[in-house]
Amino acid sequence: GKRPQDKGRHVHPVETSSWQEEVKHFDYKYTQKFRVVPPYKFEFGTSIKARWIGRPLLEIFSQEFPYFDDSVAYYTEAMKNGRLRVNDEQADLAYCCRDGDVVTHHVHRHEPPVTGHTVRILSDKEGLLVVDKPPSVPCHPGGRYRRNSLLAILAKEHALFDLHTVHRLDRLTSGVLLLGKTKQVAEQVRKEFEAGTVKKKYLARVVGDVPSGRSLVDQPIACKSHREAIHCIREEDGKASQTAITCLATTVLDDGTKHSLVLCEPLTGRTHQIRLHLQWLGCPIANDPLYGPFGVGSTAVYR
């Protein structure tokens, strides 16, 4: 039969690249340092994936979206209360997914704050938008962030819609970000990145001794935990990754800790590549909560 129509819901901007309607319904609040999104009601929606067909909905969500201390208990209550629905109808706890189903999850979202720094427009011409992305702001909606993402901020505060990514920066990374105002422009610039005609360079403040001169780190990167979004150096199944690292300056703090400013040039584009390669080199980024000296993804040698 026909797939049920998922009418009347806000679809994720990743699906539509459009914020025209949603920006009418919220405003940012500002403290001295942060941009804050007031809590709001939200509806997640997804069509059934092939691997879900014939499996209990409660089992699927408990295993694939285990974001709660007791995910089975949470989703059981959500189904009983009608917050987790199938085809906009309340489903039985034993319901098994069928091809064509649309599942919606109604939640009250509380997004973490991000820095209150302004998103500056550096250039806007010939279909290419260039912005200065502040640290702590994710490029795209995802995980805990939606309205506190760069795409949402550009839509709300600059009336810029239907943007297409050329490349990405990690949430904690600040710097120049390119966005195409059309798919054609984005694809053209993306090909230039792939061909190596456009280069990316990063500055990082690191802890520890950095080898003098220019070092090439050639270590494969693999995902260690999808749930926690932690990656690692791993030979057996890691993807080839290369980063050139050059020490620019070094200083010693009052407590005797050595800090250095390094120039990082990624020759490949793996997730968390620079952060992992600096950690492997023995000089992790000073304030990196994942791979820094005391980050949850750190190895014992840096603690």
Structure description:
The protein has six helices and 17 strands. It is an alpha+beta fold and 303 residues long. A four-stranded antiparallel beta sheet has the order 3-6-4-5. A four-stranded antiparallel beta sheet has the order 8-9-11-10. A four-stranded antiparallel beta sheet has the order 12-17-16-13. A hairpin with a 3-residue loop joins strand 1 (29-30) and strand 2 (34-36). The longest helix is centred in the middle third of the chain and has 13 residues, at 183-195.
Discrete helix count: 6
Distance between the termini: 58 Å
SSE order in H/E notation? HEEEHHEEEEEEHEEHEEEEEEH
Relative strand content: 25-35%
Q: How are the strands of the biggest sheet laid out side by side? A: 3-6-4-5
| Mean model confidence by pLDDT | 89
Helix % is 10-25%
Let me know the number of strands.
Answer: 17
Shape summary = globular
Low-confidence stretches: 1-17
Given the helix and strand composition, which structural class is it?
Answer: alpha+beta
- The radius of gyration over CA amounts to 22 Å
Q: Could you give a short account of the major beta sheet?
A: 4 strands, antiparallel
Structure, briefly:
This protein is α+β, with helices and mostly antiparallel strands and 303 residues long. It has helices at 13-16, 57-64, 71-80, 150-158, 183-195, 273-281; strands at 29-30, 34-36, 40-47, 84-86, 89-90, 102-109, 114-115, 120-125, 128-133, 164-165, 175-180, 202-207, 214-218, 221-225, 230-233, 242-252, 258-266.
List the helices and strands and how they pair.
Blueprint: H1 13-16, E1 29-30, E2 34-36, E3 40-47, H2 57-64, H3 71-80, E4 84-86, E5 89-90, E6 102-109, E7 114-115, E8 120-125, E9 128-133, H4 150-158, E10 164-165, E11 175-180, H5 183-195, E12 202-207, E13 214-218, E14 221-225, E15 230-233, E16 242-252, E17 258-266, H6 273-281
Antiparallel strand pairs: 1-2, 2-7, 3-6, 4-5, 4-6, 8-9, 9-11, 10-11, 12-17, 13-16, 14-15, 16-17
